[in-house]
Amino acid sequence: MGIYYKSNRDIREDFELQNWIQALQRPISKQGFGVVSLPPRLTNRDQLIDILTQIIFTAGPQHSAIAWIQYQYMAFIPNMPGAIYQAIPTIKGVIRDENSLTSFLPGVEATFAQVNVMAVIGTKQDPKAFTDFGVNSFQDFQTCRLIKVLNFSSQAKQGFQTLIFYKATSLIYFLGIGRSLLHFWHNF
């Protein structure tokens, strides 16, 4: 954030950013997004950081926590139908026939559509789909430098984890603790 907005004044004077916040608040009937819980104007970096953090969390961890488990639950239609097409039975233990158990479930076309939607949103896609933005996405020097530092940090972290694992492995064998502890550590 500090690369593009050095001060709160930069936030207040960015007309594109102010137009964006107004578009988010504008009612859907007026081609907006209808978000009512936002400030009328962005006046400081903390506000923008909070909004972007919520968007990133919702689009990333929140979405994956919900979407990737939906297929297991919602692909079996009686478990979680997308809609109910008749009143469900209200009296326990009274079953007239098989049809009384399934009459509220969707038909073949709606079932097929629900299973397809769940398969699309509930299946892990390419893990780089939202992280690999290509070489030319960011052009300015400071952002490119930051990306290089973050990539190096990630690679260094993996290298350190490997080094720590092998050092610990050597220590475990040296102390004679044995294979069972090593197996536990590796699977931990």
UniProtKB/TrEMBL annotation:
It holds the Pfam family Lipoxygenase. One of its GO terms (biological process) is lipid oxidation. Gene3D superfamilies: Lipoxygenase-1, Domain 5 (1.20.245.10). It comes from the Bacteria. InterPro entries: LipOase, LipOase_C, LipOase_C_sf. The keyword Oxidoreductase applies. Residues 1-132 form the Lipoxygenase domain. Keywords: Membrane, Metal-binding, Oxidoreductase, Transmembrane, Transmembrane helix. The chain crosses the membrane at residues 164-185. GO terms for molecular function: metal ion binding; oxidoreductase activity, acting on single donors with incorporation of molecular oxygen, incorporation of two atoms of oxygen. PROSITE patterns: LIPOXYGENASE_3. This is Lipoxygenase domain-containing protein.
